[in-house]
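Backbone-to-sequence.
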């Protein structure tokens, strides 16, 4: 049986992807979560199992080197070798602040380390472990997640945008390294959705109403839904998308950032 490994599986995008890929292409799910939303994790387990698939939720911090080692060993025990068809990195654990404000908002070194480990470096840590333990199935898809904010100057979001830029570089290099083995490594860049993480980010300063702002900067006049993102991930997990590799896949619906930036940085 083939498995999907989803980091950050109890809420938001990760939970939606778990449900979608258990339905199509029909993958068992191994989810990592930090235990802050046990009801969300339990709901995912029920929904995946209702589709006739196995679901293992492993509680723990997924965004460090040690966590990747421990999680991969738990995955091996649950799924066995050469079982992972899809790996999705859906972690949000960023610090908000400024780079050189010389006040309480200025980042300190520990915030750099935590944010980059969780939202960028851990993608590599997990791929290293999946390869070392021979967990990847033939033609595995390894997927990072990004958003249009990487091209913007959202107030207090410097570390978020920096980690997404680093993740894009990691994806390209890993695609080149793993391509000869038949695996694919991509970055899915999708339009803004309202999640716990996005609400926290955008309420830190000016607090625009995302339900109002995002439709205004998207040609379709609405936000993408988590279900739409998740269903597209299920497409990427299939053989028809096998030629995507080393790509930043634009799933933003044409979303622009000019209005967003104006709202988030009304003054300097």
């Amino acid at each position: 049986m083939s498995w999907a490994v989803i980091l950050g599986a109890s809420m938001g995008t990760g939970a939606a992807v778990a449900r979608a890929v258990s339905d199509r292409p029909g993958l068992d799910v191994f989810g990592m979560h930090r235990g802050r939303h046990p009801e969300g994790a339990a709901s995912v387990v029920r929904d995946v199992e209702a589709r006739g698939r196995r679901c293992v939720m492993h509680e723990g911090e997924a965004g460090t080197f040690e966590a990747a080692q421990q999680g991969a060993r738990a995955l091996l025990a649950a799924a066995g070798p050469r079982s992972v068809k899809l790996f999705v990195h859906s972690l949000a654990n960023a610090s908000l602040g400024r780079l050189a404000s010389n006040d309480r908002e200025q980042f300190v070194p520990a915030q750099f380390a935590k944010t980059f480990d969780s939202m960028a470096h851990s993608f590599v840590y997990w791929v290293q472990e999946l390869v070392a333990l021979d967990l990847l199935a033939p033609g595995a898809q390894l997927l990072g997640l990004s958003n249009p904010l990487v091209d913007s100057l959202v107030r207090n979001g410097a570390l978020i945008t920096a980690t997404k830029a680093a993740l894009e570089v990691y994806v390209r290099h890993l695609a080149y390294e793993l391509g000869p083995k038949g695996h694919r490594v991509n970055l899915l860049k999708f339009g803004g959705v309202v999640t716990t993480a996005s609400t926290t980010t955008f309420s830190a300063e000016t607090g625009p109403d995302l339900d109002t702002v995002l439709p205004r900067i998207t040609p379709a006049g609405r936000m993408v839904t988590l279900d739409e993102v998740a269903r597209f991930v299920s497409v990427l997990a299939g053989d028809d998308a096998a030629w995507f590799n080393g790509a930043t896949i634009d799933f933003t619906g044409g979303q622009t950032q000019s209005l967003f930036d104006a709202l988030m940085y009304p003054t300097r």
